[in-house]
Amino acid sequence: MTTLTRADWEQRAQQLKIEGRAFINGEYTAAVSGATFECLSPVDGRLLAQIASCDEADANRAVENARATFASGVWSRLAPAKRKATMIRFAGLLKQNVEELALLETLDMGKPISDSLNIDVPGAAQALSWNGEAIDKIYDEVAATPHDQLGLVTREPVGVVAAIVPWNFPLLMACWKLGPALATGNSVVLKPSEKSPLTAIRIAQLAIEAGIPAGVLNVLPGYGHTVGKALALHMDVDTLVFTGSTKIAKQLMIYAGESNMKRVWLEAGGKSPNIVFADAPDLNAAAESAASAIAFNQGEVCTAGSRLLVERSIKDKFLPLVLEALKAWKPGNPLDPATTVGALVDTQQMNTVLSYIDAGHSDGAKLLVGGKRILEETGGTYVEPTIFDGVTNAMKIAQEEIFGPVLSVITFDSTEEAINIANDTPYGLAAGVWTADISKAHLTAKALRAGSVWVNQYDGGDMTAPFGGFKQSGNGRDKSLHALDKYTELKATWIKL
Fold first, then answer.
1. Quick one: which of 116, 166, 277, 494 has the most CB atoms within 10 Å?
2. Which CATH class is domain 6-268+474-494?
3. Where, by residue number, is the active site (predicted)?
4. pTM
5. What gap in Å lies between CA 370 and CA 353, rounded to an integer?
6. What integer best gives the mean pLDDT of the chain?
7. Beta bridge partners of residue 491, listed in sequence order
């Protein structure tokens, strides 16, 4: 465990050499147009680097190289055990460079350095190694056939995968895609968000060092409406995987239909309910979890527990516990290891969050705590964790994904009412249930239209559990062996003996 102080991290930040170019066919390269954009840190507004602004020409070049590499078989036909060994080396290089990657992540996105160091980078490395470990332990099938027939069911890599990943967990979300996509033998073109591209650009070189052949992993920084759109419309991209907003997810489905009917797998938004029943086994634990569920990662989490549903009989007892627990989540400089809440990713997102706080006031919700921008003198983008009481599920702050530390408290009187409120949004990504009644826990979990339901905790699970949503939270699953389905095609081979 590192013992670096804020001063140490600040010094390293000043000395850090940041790569901002695209990575195509094993080499860093400027965008074909030569265009760049500024990468500003939300920590204090400092200029971090000029980043290559890729567009259609770069997408064409990267996809062409990815296709040629895939067709060559240098990776796609490599023995699974050898791909496994390379993936594990790749994961090991992330761990060896954990401090550099954590610093890049924090400077770029604004999250606390302790989270980058202890959660994001280790989680990314695990996603690579876990999928690598799995790939030589998955067997194909032999169909039940007559004695003079042989039916084989085999999985093959889909080919060229375009992965468009978000800015809130830049490295982790990239590796949730790269792990299964690379392990199954595909070539990948990765487009990180223009808001946080630095770690994706950096790990491209680490992939080469690990032994992944040039052309297998390409990284194209740039904007969604330019290079992102070009990848989504590209006739030689076989599969498109995405994590981000529901609005963009819908647009990507249209692009897929307008082009080559590429497979599209989408992990989109959420407005997750965290339901606390009167018989919750530990109200203090539930309160601490409710606070962390909205304040962790500045609330910039697709599964954030942004709707706290509290049974009326315990509300007066429970809410003070939540307010007390929230005191531990105070925005501060992300390079301070003691900081628990960092900066929002940029000014645009900060203003979006503040506009939702204004909407809460306008709709008649009662502000209990927070609600303001703070630390403005730093040049960074910080907003206090905020709680509104007296929220109805029809209010804007209860229906729309805010992607910031804004919690809506909603009261209910019965299990049926809680379930109805919980399901009454366009989303279905995650939910929490707090009860000591095992039957109520199971029946409520079954009734919730959500891809993940956590009982007497919030945000449980690991790489063995699938992650994804119902309804407009998307389709397909990240993590677990189920994720491999997105990156492979089933082939039936029927042989007359």
1. 116
2. alpha beta
3. 267
4. 0.97
5. 12
6. 98
7. 154
